[in-house]
Amino acid sequence: MLRNIAGPELLILLVIVVLVFGVGRITKIAGELGGGIRAFRKGLTGDDEEEEEAGNEHPEKNEEK
Length: 65
What we know:
Layout: H1 7-21, H2 23-45, H3 49-56, H4 59-64
């Protein structure tokens, strides 16, 4: 069914994607994807403790949640 995709096929596919979506939209999508991956990694490593500490500084904001 599917065969291995080599360099020339990837290049053709990249050209088609750029023509369909445009460079600006692709960079926006890539930036959002990178931000999502960073947030996911931050969630896995437990860096959200910093956010909890920052939230304790303003108790009135925590009550609204």
